[in-house]
Amino acid sequence: MTRRVVVTGIGAVAPTGLGVAEHWRNTLASASGIAPLPDAEALPVQAAGQVRGFDEAAHLENRLLVQTDRWTWMALAATELALADAAVDPLAEYPFHLSVVTSSASGGNAFGQREIEALYKAGPRSVSAYQSIGWFYAASSGQISIRHRVKGACGVIVSDGAGGIDALAQASRLIRRGSEAVLVGGTEAPLSPYALVCLSSQTTLSRERDPARAYRPFAPDAAGHVPGEGGAMLVVEELRRARLRPAPTVYAEVAGTAATHDAHHHDCAAPDGRQLARAARVALTRAGCGPDDVDVVFADGAGDPAGDVAEKSALAEVFGSRRVPVTVPKTMTGRLSSGGAALDVAWAALSLHHGVIPPTVYEDRPVASGLDLVTEPREAPGLRTALVLARGSGGFNAAAVLRALADH
Amino acid sequence: MRRSVVTGIGVIAPGGGSREEFWQRIVGGKPAIRRISRFDPEPFRSQIAAECDFDPFAYGLTPQEVRRMDRFALLALACADEAFADSELDRSSLDHERMGVSLGSAVGSTIRLEDEYVVASNGGKDWVVDPTHVGPFLHHALVPSSAATELAVRYGAQGPAAVISTGCTSGIDAIGHAHTLIQDDEADIVIAGASDAPISPITVACFDAIRATSPRNADPEEASRPFDADRQGFVLGEGAAVLIVEELEHAVARSARIYCEITGFAARANSFHMTGLRPDGFELSEAIMDAMDRARLNPEDLDYISAHGSGTKQNDRHETAAYKRALGEAARHIPISSIKSVIGHSLGAIGSIEMAACALAIQRGLVPPTANLTTADPECDLDYTPGVAREVTVDHALSAGSGFGGFQSAMVFSRLEGK
């Protein structure tokens, strides 16, 4: 019998708040975390989703603050919050039955910038002993594994904005192969001066100064996207184990995932959205359902005209003339790269649990986008199946189908 | 269960710019390690490295590609071209939606990121850097999955694609990921491998800071000494290997030449320390035993072990203990070697390069030696194949990897029955 995978814990460290309760409360209040960037005059990007009120010292011992980057601080804090939400104590588990899978796109970039600066200003002897473990993409998975005594297979996946779902897919493979629980997700902290410059080479970045108008997916005059920091970590478990414990909350089942690549051009996605549509169809097939079963789509929401057109084509290809509710709650956070899809999966799980679709939030939300775009929190008591779509720059596509449990 | 096999190999390693040159280099046991030539290494503690003499244009890469990509991505593309040609896959008849990409890398575009930073920050002086002074492809450099995109676009691979970045086990884990995608019917072909080009001032400095690399600057060729009593650390390297990993029936149907089958893969974490290793090798031994179980092998079935063998004091001891715990008495009779003695430690790439060596050892009945192993270390008392390659019929080869973060991985390649 196939081992089924369920989400039992959510830890958000996001522009929408810290911890699952605050994150959901701010979501329902349509409280956007996109704000002007300080000292951005010289930069092409003027606004970003920013995590506010995050006191890393409240979550982490001093040793970790010194050894790791802000991106890892957020991953560690999100993990701690997710474990508490799931009521899982890793120290009470058999360590080889637990795994960690994170996604990262920009690693410990602030840490790295500081140490390169030290090297060029003051020479090799001034480089931190922690540079070798602070900036590389595996730092968060490694530190989580050490902190929580996780000794099963660990993973680190890079596929930019698709990474959060790709990590979830890997967690599902591990659980099907025998893992009991996986700490999975992604965070990103790309607001260091140098990382912002790196992000600025993307042509799809919004140059708009007004935070309420900077990132408007599916608007006819969409200006591009804004970046952001943060993300989410989840606890996913094998279903029977979650019921036996019992887990305080079984938010949803991870019923199917899929990944494709456009293989179109090194710098831009295919205009037809065909591979995005295929990812959605394959994920639905793996979940044992079809497009008609989908009650809500958490769209990728590129926010640039070409990306939005491709996604609308994909939705049309999958759903035909049916107007399925579509939402882009990341309009409250900006695009968090690896953290983004992880947070979208969290939103979808919360949505199924509470029977409410979270809103798409920005000024002048279009009435005639051709989509049933959910712009206010929408009560949907029969909500059962959510499709989450994600794309990473270069042409990565990923889809996840989350489903409320029948007896829930 | 769907089975996966290796049908193509491409390698660029120090002292060996192709699969054949690489093989000759490692079986010859002559280290390709020298004083660093890319920048002046004088200020650094470790001034040596295993460098590739890699001219991307000689591999048919275009000026646009060279301008766009970091060295690690160029190495990956050049290796993938060799592997793809070796597999004799016919692009015109492929089902592109069933072809994926799994590329390992520990540090991605680190050279490009550092070089551009130095320019944009006025030689490291300005914290807020000037965006007008950087090249147009810096987002590609920041996010290493851009290299997986390059591979996907080059071969029209529309299946799952990702970069696997688990530090120094990335190379094994990326092939393991490909194996999993094939087992789970997510793809029929995966372009799988790893690449790293970390020989840059910041990387050399960061390993200097923890004294992980060898300071034996006076005689570079003798600096990488896995399992030797006088070992003083690893020698930084660069390179790449790409394997074409294919579902068995798919390969058989097109009468592909099959190097070997991927019969076992497992990973563990030690949850101990980001860089430190406990001497007992417990978690690595667990990974090895799991990989052997999945391959349905007993310890005495193994004919070769490609060791992680980085040449640090703690690794070689840790690893020796892991082999003894996992394999028992049989560990004493299996030829083991570390090709890092010849081509250095290319971080995430080396795991895939070592898997390529295992595939070639199975095909050719020859085990590459460990160079520079001249003085026995009482704590490393297994058969590490010192100095000279050995003729051995290799039906089953194990490779182990151990890396920062505490990650431990093991993989088994086996000769396909009847081949």
TrEMBL record, chain A:
Presence of the UniProt keyword Lipid metabolism in the record: no
Ketosynthase family 3 (KS3) domain: residues covered: 2-404
Biological processes, Gene Ontology terms: fatty acid biosynthetic process
Domain of life of the native organism: Bacteria
Entries under SMART domains matching the protein: PKS_KS (SM00825)
Molecular function terms, GO-annotated: 3-oxoacyl-[acyl-carrier-protein] synthase activity
Database matches in InterPro entries: Beta-ketoacyl_synthase, Ketoacyl_synth_C, Ketoacyl_synth_N, PKS_Beta-ketoAc_synthase_dom, Thiolase-like
A Pfam family it matches: ketoacyl-synt
UniProt xrefs under Gene3D superfamilies: 3.40.47.10
Keywords tagged on the record: Acyltransferase, Transferase
Protein's UniProt keywords contain Heme: no
PANTHER family: POLYKETIDE BETA-KETOACYL SYNTHASE 2-RELATED (PTHR11712:SF322), POLYKETIDE SYNTHASE-RELATED (PTHR11712)
Family according to the record: Belongs to the thiolase-like superfamily. Beta-ketoacyl-ACP synthases family.
Full protein name: Ketosynthase chain-length factor
Originating species: Microbispora oryzae
From TrEMBL, chain B:
The protein, known as: Beta-ketoacyl-[acyl-carrier-protein] synthase family protein
Cross-referenced SMART domains: PKS_KS (SM00825)
GO BP, one annotated term: fatty acid elongation
InterPro entries per record: Beta-ketoacyl_synthase, Ketoacyl_synth_AS, Ketoacyl_synth_C, Ketoacyl_synth_N, PKS_Beta-ketoAc_synthase_dom, Thiolase-like
Organism: Microbispora oryzae
Family: Belongs to the thiolase-like superfamily. Beta-ketoacyl-ACP synthases family.
Domain Ketosynthase family 3 (KS3) per the UniProt entry, residue ranges: 1-415
One family name in Pfam for this protein: ketoacyl-synt
Keywords of the record: Acyltransferase, Transferase
